[in-house]
Specification:
- Helix content is 75%, strand content 0%.
- It is an all-alpha fold and 107 residues long.
Length: 107
């Protein structure tokens, strides 16, 4: 495990800091996925406990699975949304209309 404390005579390199930050980011991401997974299981259990219906439990399970899938695939979803926005921006339709000189002439 990396530690950021160093002896006064040693030099902490930026690569060490980036490795530490990457490690912590990955750990936080795993913790978030774990917490959301526990919350999904609690929601499914609560759906069954309140309704005693297998249909409601199945719907809660499917919605929870969709949320977990979305969290797990967030980077790919972000790139897909970004590419869709960039693709539509390139096909701008210009509608001819009165120019600024035409508007001044009407006044």
């Amino acid at each position: 495990m990396h530690t950021l404390t160093a002896a006064p005579s040693s030099v902490v390199l930026a690569g060490d800091l980036l490795d530490w930050a990457t490690l912590k980011t990955n750990q936080i991401g795993a913790l978030i996925k774990l917490v959301v997974g526990v919350m999904v299981l609690a929601a499914v259990a609560m759906a069954y406990w309140r309704t005693k219906s297998w249909v409601a439990t199945l719907v809660a399970f499917l919605l929870g699975a969709l949320v977990l899938w979305g969290i797990s695939n967030l980077p790919s979803l972000q790139s897909k949304v970004g590419s869709e926005i960039e693709d539509t921006a390139s096909a701008v339709v210009q509608v001819p209309g009165p120019g600024p000189d035409d508007l001044r002439a009407q006044l």
